[in-house]
Write a structure and sequence with these properties.
The structure holds three protein chains of three kinds. By secondary structure, chain A is an alpha+beta fold. Chain A has two helices and three strands; from the N terminus they run ββαβα. In chain A, strands 2-1-3 form a three-stranded antiparallel beta sheet, covered by helices on one side. The longest helix of chain A is centred in the middle third of the chain and has 13 residues. Chain A starts with a strand and ends with a helix. The mean pLDDT of chain A is 91. Chain B has one domain: Ferritin. Helix content of chain B is 66%, strand content 1%. Chain B has a two-stranded antiparallel sheet. By secondary structure, chain C is an all-alpha fold. Chain C is globular and about 50 Å long. The chains are: A alpha+beta, B mainly alpha, C mainly alpha. Chains in contact: A-B, A-C, B-C. At the B-C interface, helix 2, helix 3, helix 6, helix 11 and helix 12 of B face helix 2, helix 3 and helix 9 of C.
């Protein structure tokens, strides 16, 4: 059974995918993941998750490119320049 | 910005990876790419596993507790690397048991350096210092592999290899500043390992003609790797008063290392399973695989 | 020198040496990595106890004559099959827990605190041994290996602790293979363990 291993390097850090072990149960997975991913004290915590329990999402539809939801959907340079010029020329 | 789509066409895929694109296990992979990828990664796994055998004898003979611990930890790392690598191969479709069977049957290859004997404690130092150095140069180039799962495990592998080189250098330094006999042990080991080391990165095929580079599985040509090795390590060898058994070895004014042509016939002969220790090491692997198959049956849930 | 402590240290040294023989050839790669950590920990324990005893761990580990080692015959046996190796690990951990437990109450504060430190690390060795014991308890290779090694396991502990060991393992006490006589296997091990060290004059650096 494949167990995906997520490791946390230090408290406060996210858990990151680190690899996988092939083990018959959680006990073996733990005994083996401890050493493979922690023998140098490089992880403060591990999550061991049966691969079957993971639901992957990797297909998206972005047909109409709704850019207003993102930072790159805005281009303020030109208008900002004009607004500054007007303000300093005292046209307000 | 639409999500990146890995192209489903071999030419477009080639352009994609050559442009720095990476792929995951679930992406479409051209058949040629998949086959070459499995073969390359499998050979790496085999090499880590076989590399253990010349070194493990010396764990038992280490002359101090510190060296015993360090060498055990180094070999442990290599077994761990084999585990990471075979998992990647398995996720590409070839089970670990099949890889091991092909290895002991002589159907799959492993790197030349692991077909040679280790004769003294000097070899222990030279392997950790120079052989691992040659390997780490190739491994750093794999950090950019187009196949992302492999690139990701290379990060852990490279991090752990850095300890090995330091350990190797420490062993060497203790001996070259020790007795005259200890210095000689190191020199003798350097003399024996130099040939295989020069062959290690493979013959100087132009990278544009190397399919591994074309597919960006490797991001570096063979000669580039060898030059990096010479540039990094020949000065380290010379500064200790050790010599390299190649009268032609020198760095030209344009920064290129010149050397005697490595014995490519020897390399071919060795990696096709005719090295001095190939048979005995594969036999050892096979003996333990067979003897303990009942254990794998009990802990397997396949 | 404290015979009990030297016996503990020598047991850990020789068992660690034996367990390190599996590095690279264990039945499962994941187990190979985990088992190697156990072997390293054992050597680490030996080193810590040697340092407590004389301050020069390497001298004690390598430079004594064969008959000066105080290890139990259990750890000297060359057991290059997994059933016997795991059976030994399991039996040794049960015995060692009893021994370390006693040392944790030692009148010498340094001994008590080192025993506590070792005990914290041994917790993981015990988990590992129990894990294998659970999975193999009905496997004939394992149960017959435990039978083979049982008289040797009893010899790890002083006589007054053996009833406790028998109770925990669930086997009847039998005549033990006592400390004091070394096996031929130890001589072979010692030769290999010291061959590089003996190749240079005493005090050479490595």
């Amino acid at each position: 059974m494949i167990w995906e291993i997520f490791r946390q390097e230090r408290k406060g850090q996210p858990f990151e995918s680190a690899g996988s072990v092939d083990a018959p149960d959680a006990e073996f997975a733990e005994a083996w993941a401890r050493e493979q991913y922690g023998r140098r004290g490089e992880s403060v915590a591990l999550w061991l998750i049966p691969r079957d329990a993971i639901h992957t999402v990797d297909k998206w539809a972005d047909e109409f490119e709704l850019k207003y939801r993102r930072v790159d959907g805005y281009s303020i340079k030109a208008r900002l320049k004009e607004a500054r010029e007007r303000a300093s020329a005292g046209t307000r | 910005m639409a999500a990146v789509e890995v192209p489903h066409d071999e030419q477009a895929f080639l352009a994609y990876v050559q442009g720095g694109g990476q792929v995951e296990t679930t992406d479409w992979l051209p058949e040629d790419y998949r086959r070459k990828l499995i073969k390359f990664i499998e050979m790496h796994g085999n090499s880590e596993l076989m590399g253990v055998l010349p070194e493990r004898e010396w764990i038992l003979r280490a002359p101090t507790l510190q060296r015993k611990l360090a060498l055990t930890a180094k070999v442990q790392d290599e077994v761990g690397h084999a585990q990471l690598i075979y998992r990647v191969v398995e996720d590409l479709g070839k089970p670990r048991a099949q890889c091991l069977a092909d290895l002991v049957d002589g159907k799959a290859k492993f790197h030349n350096v692991f077909h040679y004997p280790t004769k003294t404690w000097g070899d222990v130092g030279v392997i950790a210092w120079l052989v691992d150095a040659a390997a780490i140069i190739s491994q750093k180039a794999l950090l950019k592999c187009s196949y992302a799962p492999y690139a990701r495990i290379m990060k852990k592998i490279c991090w752990e290899e850095s300890f090995h080189i330091l350990h190797g250098r420490d062993v060497i330094l203790a001996m070259v500043t020790g007795t005259a006999e200890q210095f000689e042990l190191v020199q003798e080991a350097v003399n024996r390992w130099w040939g295989p080391l020069m062959q290690f990165h493979g013959n100087p095929i132009a990278k544009e003609e190397d399919p591994m580079y074309q597919w960006r599985i490797k991001s570096q040509g063979n000669e580039e790797a060898r030059q990096q090795f010479l540039d990094g390590y020949v000065p380290q060898i010379w500064e200790l008063g050790l010599t390299v058994p190649d009268p032609k070895l020198r760095k030209t004014d344009d920064g290129v290392w010149e050397y005697s042509e490595p014995d490519w016939e020897e390399l071919k002969h060795v990696v096709t399973g005719h090295g001095p220790c190939t048979d005995e090491r594969l036999a050892l692997r096979q003996r333990f695989i067979e003897q303990e198959s009942w254990v794998r049956d009990i802990v397997s849930t396949a | 020198m404290n015979e009990l402590l030297l016996g503990l240290a020598d047991d850990e040294l020789i068992l660690g040496w034996r367990d390190s023989e599996w590095t690279g050839i264990a039945p499962v790669l994941e187990e190979d990595v985990a088992f190697s950590s156990i072997a390293q920990n054992e050597i680490g324990h030996a080193r810590a106890v040697y340092e407590l005893l004389t301050g020069d761990a390497d001298a004690l580990a390598f430079d004594r004559a064969l008959d000066e080692y105080r290890c139990a015959p259990l750890v000297e046996l060359r057991l290059l099959d997994w059933a016997h190796t795991i059976a030994r690990r399991w039996l040794y951990e049960v015995a060692d827990e009893i021994r370390i437990g006693a040392l944790m109450g030692d009148g010498d504060a340094r001994v008590a605190s080192l025993a506590a430190k070792i005990n914290r690390e041994e917790a993981y060795h015990r988990m590992h041994a129990e894990m294998w014991h659970d999975r193999l308890r009905d496997e004939p290779r394992f149960t017959s290996a435990v039978s083979d090694l049982w008289p040797y396991a009893l010899g790890v502990l002083p006589r007054d602790r053996r009833a406790e060991l028998a109770h925990r393992v669930g086997l009847a006490e039998v005549a033990a293979v006592e400390r004091g006589t070394h096996t031929d296997e130890l001589a072979e091990l010692w030769n290999e363990m010291t061959m590089v060290r003996r190749s240079a004059p005493a005090g050479a650096q490595w």
